[in-house]
Design brief:
This protein has about 300 residues and is of the alpha/beta class. Helix content is about 45%, strand content about 25%.
Length: about 300
């Protein structure tokens, strides 16, 4: 008996449509025409003898079975990529393509000092970078869109392995002429909850800052408004409040050209762990450990 199996290309089309919810955007993500993607999905449904996607003029809806097939397709595509990775890692280490997600509170500060050295010393490595919030980056990792993630811990990551890059201290930033004249080290009890500006939901730095202060009322009173650390700095520079910044951002000169000053936060948990994480049992684990070593050296 001949068994007809879905192709990896068909599964890629299905996963892309589920991710983007639109045939045109899914086709663009797969670098094919919309008609090619649509035909591939119809062939897949014909092959399986089921309806996976309900098509209407206004929306794309997956059937319950379609959602289950997408979940399985994610695993199959990830395992197919890991098979390719296993062969590649048997050759020259840290070579070929690698996709790394990086969170926005690390990317603009760590990458500029790390990438030039990495390009010089690992010219065979083609590193594709994807900037995402922590939750989106971990989802990309487990769905196979990224091979590894550079993020700040603690954060729920699921089944991963990790290598610590560095500990990044948290500082309190405030206007230079603040009438309170903050001391050289600022204890959490000195932070005015009505003036505290933090990143909006989705950024793990917000949780790290709140955990370091260990003051429940801060969560209720702080203004979660910033979309980036640069935005928060500009708000502080305009006298709208104070915020918390990681030391790597200060070292990268985020306060240059402003009248904002910063003092270290005095707390036993006033730091975040910068780490490289990857899927548990990945065949490229040794390469990721080598990459972590390169990042530490940078």
């Amino acid at each position: 008996m001949t068994t007809y199996l879905p192709t990896l290309k068909q599964l890629q089309y299905l996963v892309a449509l589920h991710e983007h919810g639109h045939f045109g955007r899914a086709a663009d993500a797969c670098f094919v025409s919309q008609s090619t993607l649509s035909a591939g999905l119809r062939d897949l449904e014909t092959l399986l003898g089921v309806v996976l996607v309900e098509r209407t003029k206004r929306a794309v809806r997956f059937t319950p079975l379609g959602n289950a097939v997408v979940a399985k397709a994610h695993r199959l595509l990830r395992e197919a990529e890991e098979l390719s990775d296993m062969v590649q890692s048997a050759g020259q280490p840290l070579s070929g393509e690698m996709r790394m997600s990086v969170i926005p509170t690390i990317a603009p500060f760590l990458l500029p000092r790390m990438l030039p050295r990495l390009r010089r010393e690992r010219p065979a490595l083609k590193l594709y970078l994807r900037e995402e919030t922590s939750a989106a980056a971990i989802e990309s990792l487990h769905h196979g869109r990224s091979d590894c993630v550079l993020l700040a811990l603690p954060f729920p990551t699921g089944e991963v392995e990790k290598e610590t890059i560095e500990l990044d201290a948290l500082w309190v930033a405030f206007p230079k002429d603040d009438p309170r004249d903050p001391p050289e080290e600022i204890s959490p009890d000195l932070i005015d909850e009505n003036r505290l500006l933090l990143l909006e939901d989705g950024h793990c730095l917000k949780e790290h800052a709140l955990a370091a202060c260990n003051r429940p009322e801060l969560r209720a009173s702080a203004t979660m408004i910033g979309t980036s650390l640069h935005t928060l700095v500009q708000m502080v520079d305009n006298g709208l409040g104070l915020t918390m910044l990681p030391e790597m951002a200060l070292d990268a000169g985020i306060l240059n050209g402003t009248d904002v000053v910063a003092r270290p936060l005095k707390s036993e948990t006033a730091n975040r762990e910068i780490a490289l994480v990857w899927r548990k049992n990945s065949p490229r684990a040794d390469e990721f450990r080598m990459l972590a070593e390169e990042l530490r050296a940078g």
